[in-house]
């Protein structure tokens, strides 16, 4: 069985004829629109309360360095293999079909869980803003009530996002710059207001869970693993090479500029957050609004909640779009049922892929907790980024150096090896339950590949 059959590199390297209109600053705003969202509005408080304490500030620095290395690697792939896009397509060319299928599976899991985390965080903000007190049976994931329970508000949000998918998602690109400015202004107001309520005693026990504790899910490195999600979204920049003016300079500037600004934002917000309220009290989803209400600024907390609603909805639409595109691309290659790549309707969208996305995302969102989903998302992302780190070395070995005008990852193979080591260190901080569930899902995906994908692959039919 030829499970390592590859797509020709020449096919993947075909340049699409698109208008090059994006500049470095456009890419910075594009990255900020993706990266400044769920993490800062939702995960910072719970990560500080249950994983790292005030040392979450150091966790964010470690995570930003790790994602920075991966973003540089991703950028060369996006520049040299732009037609297919995404780790699935890159690895199809380099390692073959089955490794690409595993990477595609990790991508689909990442986008499913990312969409679910966004919806869960958005639901929490709605409840906090409106003061909703729903019955336990519809107010939380499984285990919240004595028998069965489901988190209804996030499920309704997924339904809304799914319906928007049938109309396309171009509005997100049009309003991206406005939304980014709105987010930055709101976060700046939070930081400035919080400075007047800082209590240095809240930072005394800086690392209450230790600096690292392998497989325990606690400590500073575990916090870095969890907050790794905060910087996801740089893929939006790296896949924009075909539409970027002077991409060999604009893309790295956009990536590093967006990563730097995002890191500063997360550090300042976390510093102020843990200084305003003791970390033990921050185990809430609407954490920024909660902190402001705790010091008597309820009106300002409500404004932050409203901004978060717009922010998280945008991230949710982005995740759903990326997921549908992944399902569509894999189906187009024959590894998923052909129905998922059929375009229909007025806007020529893959309706079946959108419908599948909505149904599965509703189940995941309604039944599983945001903490479990966050760790799951990061673990999947780390694994396929490690595959890309190995892949960039193989790309240079098999196809040589980048041509003039293509992005070049610096210090290969040193930088990919460092990226591998950092990612491996972060992997050790996930608990065994997260690993167990992921292994089961990958085994199921493997069975699906040999039972369906291998026989229906377009490459196999061509052979």
Task: Give a summary of the structure in a few sentences.
This protein has 463 residues and is mostly helical.
Kindly describe this structure.
- This protein starts with 8 loop residues before the first helix and ends with a helix.
- It is mainly alpha-helical and 463 residues long.
- The chain has helices spanning 9-12, 24-35, 38-52, 56-80, 86-94, 97-130, 152-165, 170-195, 220-227, 235-238, 247-276, 287-294, 298-332, 351-367, 370-399, 414-427, 432-456, 458-462.
- Helices cover 68% and strands 0% of the residues.
Biggest sheet character:
none
- The fraction of residues in strands falls at under 5%
* Record field, number of beta strands: 0
Low-pLDDT segments: 11-18
CA-CA gap between termini? 12 Å
Whole-number mean pLDDT: 81
Helix amount, in percent? Answer: 55-70%
What coarse outline follows from CA principal-axis ratios?
Answer: globular
Write down the secondary-structure element order.
Answer: HHHHHHHHHHHHHHHHHH
Query: Which class best fits the helix and strand makeup?
Result: mainly alpha
Q: Please report the number of helical segments.
A: 18
Radius of gyration: 21 Å
Question: Any key phrases for this structure?
Answer:
463 residues, mainly alpha, 18 helices
How are the secondary structure elements laid out?
Elements: H1 9-12, H2 24-35, H3 38-52, H4 56-80, H5 86-94, H6 97-130, H7 152-165, H8 170-195, H9 220-227, H10 235-238, H11 247-276, H12 287-294, H13 298-332, H14 351-367, H15 370-399, H16 414-427, H17 432-456, H18 458-462
């Amino acid at each position: 069985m030829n499970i390592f059959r590859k797509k020709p590199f020449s096919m993947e390297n075909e340049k699409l004829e698109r208008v090059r209109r994006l500049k470095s600053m456009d890419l910075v705003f594009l990255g900020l629109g993706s990266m400044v969202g769920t993490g800062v509005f939702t995960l910072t408080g719970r990560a500080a309360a249950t994983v790292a304490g005030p040392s979450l500030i150091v966790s964010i620095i470690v995570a930003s360095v790790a994602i920075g290395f991966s973003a540089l690697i991703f950028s060369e792939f996006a520049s040299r293999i732009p037609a297919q896009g995404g780790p699935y397509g890159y690895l199809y060319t380099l390692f073959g079909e089955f490794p690409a299928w595993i990477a595609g599976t990790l991508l689909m899991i990442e986008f499913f869980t990312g969409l679910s985390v966004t919806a869960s965080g958005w639901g929490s903000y709605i409840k906090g803003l409106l003061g909703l007190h729903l019955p336990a049976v519809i107010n939380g994931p499984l285990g919240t009530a004595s028998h069965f329970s489901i988190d209804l508000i996030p499920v309704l949000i997924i339904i809304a996002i799914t319906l928007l998918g049938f109309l396309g998602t171009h509005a997100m690109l049009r309003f991206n710059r406005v939304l980014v400015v709105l987010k930055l202004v709101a976060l700046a107001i939070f930081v400035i207001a919080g400075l007047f309520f800082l209590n240095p005693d809240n930072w005394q026990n800086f690392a209450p869970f230790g600096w690292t504790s392998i497989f325990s899910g606690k400590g500073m490195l575990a916090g870095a693993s969890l907050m790794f999600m905060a910087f996801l979204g740089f893929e939006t920049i790296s896949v924009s090479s075909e539409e970027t003016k002077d991409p060999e300079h604009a893309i790295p500037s956009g990536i590093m500029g967006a990563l730097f600004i995002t890191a500063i934002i997360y550090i300042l917000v976390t510093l102020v957050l843990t200084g305003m309220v003791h970390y033990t009290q921050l185990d809430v989803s609407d954490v920024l609004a909660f902190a402001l209400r705790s010091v008597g600024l309820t009106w300002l907390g409500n404004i932050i909640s409203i901004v978060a609603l717009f922010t998280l909805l945008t991230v949710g639409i982005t995740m759903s779009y990326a997921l549908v595109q992944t399902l569509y691309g894999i189906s187009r290659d024959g590894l998923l049922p052909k129905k998922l790549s059929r375009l229909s309707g007025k806007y020529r969208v893959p309706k079946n892929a959108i419908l599948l996305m909505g149904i599965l995302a509703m189940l995941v969102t309604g039944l599983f907790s945001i903490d479990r989903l966050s760790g799951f998302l990061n673990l999947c992302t780390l694994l396929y980024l490690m595959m890309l780190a190995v892949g960039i070395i193989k790309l240079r070995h098999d196809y040589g150096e980048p041509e003039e005008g293509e992005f070049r990852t610096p210090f290969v193979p040193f930088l990919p090896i460092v990226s591998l080591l950092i990612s491996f260190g972060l992997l050790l901080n996930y608990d065994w339950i997260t690993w167990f569930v992921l292994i089961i899902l990958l085994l199921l995906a493997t069975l699906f590949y040999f039972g369906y994908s291998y026989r229906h692959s377009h490459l196999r039919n061509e052979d």
